[in-house]
Amino acid sequence: MSEHFVKQTYGVMWHFCHNTGGICFCRMTSDHITEYEVLLSSGQKDFDVLIDDTDTIHLVCGDDSGSMIYISNRDKTWKKYTVMQSKTIEVSPKNFNIYRVGNWINVIYSIDYKGKRLLSHQILESSNPPGAIDYTEGEFCTTKDLDGNIYVLYNNQSGALGWRKFAWGKKEWSDFTAITAGEGLISPYIYVDDKIHIAGIRDDSVVYISDGTEHCLGTPGSGPIILKHGGLLYVMWENKRSGKVCVCPSSNRGASFQSPTEFVSGTFAPVKLYSLAHTSFENCFARHCYGYIRDNTVNLYLLGDYLNIKLSPPKPVMPTVQKDEGVELVKLKIQLQQLSEAVAKMGLRVDALEKKTGENSLNKKTEP
Question: CB burial class (10 A; 0-12, 13-18, 19+) of residue 277?
Fold first, then answer.
């Protein structure tokens, strides 16, 4: 993925791309593209980028020497670090995918190792070395769930399509889970909410798989993606023959889908697949989206609201504190006890006052 839209909490959205100048970027205050700057002239096109809730940008890429580079931007200051120095000058695509879990940047990528492709996982600034996930054949796709667990979908050495999960709480990868209906599927894509959704291409047709059920959504198709918007689950893809984008919505979490709808793109505007990165303040449940740029104006299919840039910082959401009935009962008992004690003290003071008043009256009567 060589084109990314990175959205800050407010004020600015960034467009990162790769061209003959290397990895470039521009700062956008609306849906209009502005002048680009070169970030890393030696940067390769298989980079990935994300942004955290402090509006710090994190970018991982390879350079023309084959090394892994990490670049961050905080308070408008770019900092560059060499994460892994290449032992050779051979440059091969690593297809970086990065995810932030807590304060840790996780990088999933593939490397050539003894004539094979090895899926690897590295946590930046960790004392642990990069870990091997598995050998893979062909493409792979990654995602993260709301609990911070990372998933990778790939074909193993035997050619079987399946996934592994990195359980963040345990810091370990699960065993390979094969997808029974995944035979012959190319361009695999994974999306995880409360269940696992998978899309891909088989025999030029778009296929959706979940819970052991398979749906053929349309043909011809290429590059299917999955996203959620407005309470619906969508599978979106490109029709290479017509140059148009199609989408199939589901209102029941993928149990069934409506007929595909075809978007009409603008004249002389080639369709592109963009990667989306945003903070947790953004109400967006998509990692990618199709769209186009025409006359320096960005258009995204289905997610047009994503291009609306907020002018002021978001108000922090105050966490809702769940009341414990047992604790509340104890508090009530304490309050009643305090009230009872206060009433008792008040009764003692009244008795003392009445006694004193009686003595004063008696003294007055006995005076000569």
Answer: buried
If you ran DSSP here, which 8-state letter would residue 285 be given? Answer: B
Question: For the segment 309-337, what is each residue's pLDDT rounded down to a tens digit?
Answer: 999 988 766 555 554 555 556 555 666 66
Q: What tokens were used for 48?
A: 């990935």
Around Cβ 59, how many Cβ atoms within 10 Å? 27
113 Cβ contact list (under 8 Å, min separation 6): none
Residue 359 in domain: yes
Instruction: Write out the two tokens for 277.
Output: 């990165």
On whether both 286 and 333 belong to a single domain, the answer is no
For residue 109, which of 142, 75, 76, 155 has the smallest C-alpha distance?
Answer: 142
The secondary element (H helix, E strand) that includes residue 207 is strand 205-210
Candidates 95, 116, 92; CA nearest to 107 is: 95
Alpha carbon distance 9, 215 (integer Å): 37
In whole angstroms, give the CA distance from residue 205 to residue 222. Answer: 8
Shared-domain flag, residues 71 and 130: yes
User: Would 144 be classed as within a structural domain?
Assistant: yes
| pTM score, whole prediction | 0.83
Say whether both 213 and 91 belong to one domain: yes
Listed residues 257, 276, 307: the one ending a domain? 307
120 has which bridge partners?
A: 109, 132
Cα distance between residue 32 and residue 193, in whole Å = 32
Domain boundaries, position 331:
321-368
Of 51-60, 139-148, 271-280, 338-347, least confident by mean pLDDT is: 338-347
User: Are 284 and 325 found together in one domain?
Assistant: no
Instruction: Please compute, for residue 145, the number of CA atoms within 13 A of its CA located in the half-sphere on the CB side.
Output: 17
Are residue 246 and residue 303 in the same domain, yes or no?
yes
Q: What is the pLDDT of residue 368?
A: 46
Query: What is the distance of C-alpha 19 from the center of its chain?
Result: 26
User: And the tokens for 149?
Assistant: 């667990």
**How do residues 14-40 score in pLDDT, each as one tens digit?**
999 999 999 999 999 999 999 999 999
Count of domains forming the chain: 2
Please identify, among 272, 307, 342, the residue that sits at the C-terminal boundary of a domain: 307
Here the CATH number for the domain that contains residue 75 is 2.130.10.10
Q: What kind and span of H or E run contains 277?
A: strand 272-278
| DSSP-derived pairing of the beta strands 22-28 and 297-300 | unpaired
